[in-house]
């Protein structure tokens, strides 16, 4: 009687397993009929693969046979090493033979397009190329290719975070909020937010913006600050432009009385004007910030290469000629001299590099 009961139980388990497998296959078939996309079918089959395997193994075990070896889960050590290899920027660069650099098209003089539409230039870009040289040496890849990826104030962080861009060096402020999403290199510039306005506008400081229109660039820390203090200052309207060039264009066209942004970026936009002397940078800066290069979060090996490359430029003294080239000499496209001497704050940062936000 016990033997007969055991046989019935085995038969019941087998019938249950077969029934479940049949239902799964019918589900797949009906879905595939509704969608002829081979790729979708493949994905669906992959989704069902493990449940089917588990059911087959369960029925096999019911008959007293050995477990299915193909269903063995990888060890935690193997999974961890594969994850590290997949997420490491240096490994990604090595496999592709290409490093992807994020650049800006109008962040003068940090990263911008001047004469060649396919080649960014600028102070931050020069530092970025120093990092590329360091990566070539680290990976022993002298023929490493560079691919440029244009970024904006709005999309730069997501593109670095998701791995589309390996390194962004432009005019990105290092702050605590952004540190939750990306990592920053040691700082390479220190700025203050001020106002660009016409000489005859009557605007001398932020208190003079009462009832007036102000333009700033969307996705920047300047925009965030001014919107937090909009009511306090009595600003008539805040306009958010897509980039610095558009912000300055709105100012020039009379759509705003002033343009708020980092002081050095305002100097860069002013240099592009038909009559730079018509515009002045005014106001006491309510915000002081540090720029750094952005890289993916949680990649200490790549960050070390980036930081060491920038620190090497500092310690060798090359940073002085690099700064002079972009801030105290005529720069393209109009050969305007920004006449922006190195501040004491930046000198201190170069002397003791760090990746803090202050």
Offer a concise description of the structure.
This protein is of the alpha/beta class. The chain folds into three domains: 2-68; 88-188 and 292-351, Periplasmic binding protein-like II (D-Maltodextrin-Binding Protein, domain 2), CATH 3.40.190.10; 191-289, Periplasmic binding protein-like II (D-Maltodextrin-Binding Protein, domain 2, 3-Layer(aba) Sandwich), CATH 3.40.190.10. It contains 14 helices and 16 strands.
How does this model look, in words?
The protein has about 350 residues and is of the alpha/beta class. It has three domains: about 1-70; about 90-190 and about 290-350, D-Maltodextrin-Binding Protein, domain 2 (3-Layer(aba) Sandwich); about 190-290, D-Maltodextrin-Binding Protein, domain 2, CATH 3.40.190.10. The protein is built from 14 helices and 16 strands. The protein has helices spanning about 1-35, 40-60, 75-85, 90-95, 125-140, 155-160, 175-180, 220-230, 230-235, 245-250, 265-270, 300-315, 320-325, 345-350; strands at about 100-105, 105, 110-115, 120, 145-150, 165-170, 180-185, 190-200, 215, 235-240, 260, 280, 290, 295, 330, 335. The strands form five sheets. Strands 8, 9, 10, 11, 12 and 13 form a six-stranded mixed sheet that branches. Strands 5-1-6 form a three-stranded parallel sheet. Strands 2-3-4 form a three-stranded antiparallel sheet. Strand 2 and strand 3 form a beta hairpin. Helix 1 (about 1-35) runs antiparallel to helix 2 and helix 5 (about 125-140) packs across helix 12. The N and C termini lie far apart (about 80 Å). Mean pLDDT is about 80; it is low at about 10-15 and about 15-85.
